[in-house]
Amino acid sequence: MQNELQRAIDAIHVRFGDQALVRATRLPGAEPWPTGIPAVDRLSGIGGWPRGRIGLLSGRSGSGKLTLGLALLARATQEFAQVVVIDPQRGFDPWTFASLGADLRNLTLVRPPNATAAGEAAVSLARAGVGCLLMLDSLPEPALAPLESAAARSGSAVLAVTGEPAPQGLAFASSLSLSLQRTDWIWERGLPVGLRTLLGCRKNKLAAPGGEAELELRYALGARLFQAQAVRETQAQEANVRELPAWRFAAV
């Protein structure tokens, strides 16, 4: 029996290559990307967002999932040479995003015309080895398995932000799934400037799931949104990014 098994393994290696079938002990573990947000790094169980895997942030409207996703993305622009946002709904605003401390020179915005194109773009970018890929919506289920494979090969950190409940296919494909539930608003001078949310680990293929942490999230401009100082800051940011190549913000 052992000889027959070895012959079958040898045949697979000859036909498909050495990487087509490997022992589990030879598979590398997920490399953590420290996000700088202690609650996220702790709940991941490995000290950071897993690279080479699909991760998920989900929650109802107003839970803070997008605010947290953008905070993670802003950090990524400071540490990776290429960061991509896939924005099928065309709701991403790079100028507001810049107020989070993001480096727009490392950001590429992709606005695909339909879900199929979004899936193809995500797989191609992960296969090419983009540092961090943020998806502001789910992808068609046929694209998820190729995306998993592409990310695992290149080491890209893939993050999807969706509503609650998360699409079943995406929830299944994710290695780390964090849910957010707002517990309170943060007010200053009569204006909402952020929120407090309960961050829970619903799924974790890398460590024990089930942990929770309280998290305080501040909005990008907060109470200064309509003040003169905020206007001056925004104008300065626009001046700094005016010379960026136009293709970085073009639809593809």
TrEMBL record:
Pfam family, any one: RecA_N
Domain of life: Bacteria
Domain RecA-like N-terminal residue range list: 4-140
Annotated keywords: ATP-binding, DNA recombination, Nucleotide-binding
Species of the source: Candidatus Dormiibacter inghamiae
UniProt GO MF annotations: ATP binding; single-stranded DNA binding
Family membership: Belongs to the RecA family.
Any one biological process term the GO annotation gives: DNA repair
Identification of the protein by name: Protein RecA
